[in-house]
Amino acid sequence: MRTVHDGPPSYMQDVSQIPDAVPVPHTGRYKASPYNVLGRDYNPMQDGRDYREEGTASWYGTKFHGQNTANGELYDLYGMTAAHKTLPLPTYVQVTNLANNRKIIVRVNDRGPFYSDRIIDLSYAAAKKLGYADQGTAHVLVEGIDPVAWQQQNNPSYLVQAQPVAAPQRAEIIPLEPIETGHTGYYLQVGAFSNAQSAEQLRQRLRSVVSANVFVSEFQQDARTLHRVRLGPVSSQDEARRLMETLRLANMGTPTLVTVN
């Protein structure tokens, strides 16, 4: 039975063990088109990296758990996510509870709140980590994050290899280094990293979006070891394009199509 009133979950998970969202550069389209809710027009920003605003934060929980967000993802009240009326989707922001100076990073993937002058709606887990879930609201500072700059500061070896393509049917087909010996077919490369942890974080995100095999493979380039994140093998270019569209709709970027002969 669907929950009629919003509220906290019956199972109180230890949110201190839930990591903050990790800012990952976005290579696909942002969702930032004008829209109308409750008779009011909203014109989202096209770039949220320099966003900074103080105001009231609220949170949402069981009523929306498992439902689609405005980004097309499923809302998880234990995820480190947020809803905002005008930030482009997705955007990463740091939220500071000004009453206790606790800070978290969340991924904005939804729209709202629309029923008040509150500036952001956090997931239940995010509000719990900031220490205001029981009170319902808090006065916060919300600051946009540049994922590339964040990665360069926190992970100096970060490297993004995959580049977006204009359309799936014109995806570049490039040679695949012979590291998957004995395997042939089509693969989708989503990114490449100097840091193995960053590659694994992306692999885990992809596994929550697609049912295809997702793996990390290493190769050498200019005396460096890079960690590629790939999907596959897939049976045909048509299947590869369907996966590309799935990733695009989930705002996971547009991967590069590669082939092994």
TrEMBL record:
PROSITE patterns: SPOR
CDD domains for the chain: DPBB_RlpA-like (cd22268)
Segments crossing the lipid bilayer: none
Alphabetized SUPFAM superfamilies for the sequence: Barwin-like endoglucanases, Sporulation related repeat
UniProt keywords, alphabetically: Cell wall biogenesis/degradation, Lyase, Signal
EC number: 4.2.2.-
Gene3D superfamilies: RlpA-like domain, Sporulation related repeat
Lineage top rank: taxon: Bacteria
InterPro entries attached to this UniProt entry: RlpA, RlpA-like_DPBB, RlpA-like_sf, RplA, SPOR-like_dom, SPOR-like_sf
EC category: lyase
Residues annotated as domain SPOR: 180-261
Function: Lytic transglycosylase with a strong preference for naked glycan strands that lack stem peptides.
Family as reported in the entry's similarity comment: Belongs to the RlpA family.
Protein name, entry field: Endolytic peptidoglycan transglycosylase RlpA
Organism field: Halopseudomonas sabulinigri
